[in-house]
Amino acid sequence: MTSPQQLNPGRPEYTGRSILVMELDAHPDEESLARTVRSFAGTSSIASSSDFGHHAMVMDQIGDEDATLFPNLGLAVVPGGAERVAALRNAATTDARIRSVEPEQVMYALAAPADAPIGDQQLEQYLRGYRDAASALLTNLGLDGATVPTQFAPNGAAATASATFADTDATTWGLQAALVDTSPWTGEGIRLAVLDTGIDLTHPDVVGRRVINQSFVPDEEVQDGNGHGTHTSGTAAGPRVPPSGSRRYGVAGSANLFVGKVLSDAGSGSDSQVLAGMEWAVTQRCQVISMSLGSNDPTVSSAYEAVGQRALDAGCLIVAAAGNNATRPGDPGFVGRPANSTSVMAVGAIDPEMQIARFSARTGPAAGGQVDIAGPGTVVFSAWPLPDEFKTIQGTSMATPHVSGIAALYAQATGATGMTLWGEVVRGARQLTLPSVDVGAGLVQAPR
């Protein structure tokens, strides 16, 4: 099995295909979208997701020379690399049917680097120094032992300025910090999709549970041969009382879980695979889509921006990992694709001492590259494919399913969807004594 710590992207990689974002207002039906693809891209062979009826698009049935049409999203992926992109972009400037053209990229599962794992001496010294400096500052200000003002705490409850958390026999530190362990909501009736490397369907905490699943990776079943997808699915929607006898690690244990395998067992996949999974989840009427994946590209993707907005319009909130390209305290990194789209909720990571994780990407200068909220993202215990059964890892990937699962709780508690649901999640966050460029609205909190 591939270790997720080996999956972090370097510079953006490209597949040699291009993505067309079409104006839906200029296309009354799917056939008009197909005509645009044929005439604009010069491609006669088109595979459409609608060809598969009520089933998800099977990516290994699509030839390399085919165009792939996602009519519900208004997107198409066509053959042709960088030179073709330039020509198509030039043509698009005078074609009202086309919003944008961009090269298709490779997406990766986002787990924190393995070169300095949580618990190593260097990180312990850094955190200890940070804590001691903060304590000294509070003492000098006469605020030793002070509490955060109630207006900065969830539901008016005071939160200690020096709060630290740890796993117990009953629950993980992340569920405690996010108030999931005391929330009465379970996500029942809410459709929650996790797009990742799949899930271990033989895991004792999954066996017997209905998991709607689909693989979008050619020649691979949804069964997770990597681990990253099982871990994120476990955090987002693991059972309230795990049959395995483990401590609780899942947020929305009663949600209807949809798992789309969009990344291979090696931890990577194309935009086409991710977009196919997103269209499937939106078509399945999922209220929340969790995506712990991305590319280290600070430029905003018109394709993911369009999909995010169209998903919100359809009542679906997309939550994505901000990225792990920071090496703090020196380099705060930047939010990468697709989380840097303004229509996608970007999630940063904090540690058990309520400090920013040293790998967590910061809001960048480009429009859209904003961290919107933070979740528990270090020493995160969750499910793992057998025979390991459980594993503790770190990354904004681990923070993202905390937020996604809590979004499902808010959807159940309030009935909110789309942009309204986004507002509920952000308004419920606990403000932290950290820059908003790192944590956005603050630490995600479950509804009470």
UniProtKB/TrEMBL annotation:
State if Transmembrane is listed as a keyword.
no
Q: Which named protein is this? A: S8 family serine peptidase
**What is stated as this protein's family in its record?**
Belongs to the peptidase S8 family.
- Whose protein is this, by species? Actinomycetospora endophytica
Q: Which residues form the signal peptide?
A: none
Where is there biased composition of kind Low complexity? Answer: 229-238
Q: Where is the active site?
A: 196, 228, 397
Q: Which residues form the Peptidase S8/S53 domain?
A: 187-428
Give the domain of life: Bacteria
Region of interest called Disordered, as start-end residue ranges on this chain: 217-246
| Key words of the record | Hydrolase, Protease, Serine protease
Q: What PANTHER family does the entry give? A: CEREVISIN-RELATED (PTHR43806:SF11), PEPTIDASE S8 (PTHR43806)
Q: Which InterPro entries match?
A: Peptidase_S8/S53_dom (IPR000209), Peptidase_S8/S53_dom_sf (IPR036852), Peptidase_S8_Ser-AS (IPR023828), Peptidase_S8_subtilisin-like (IPR050131), Peptidase_S8_subtilisin-rel (IPR015500)
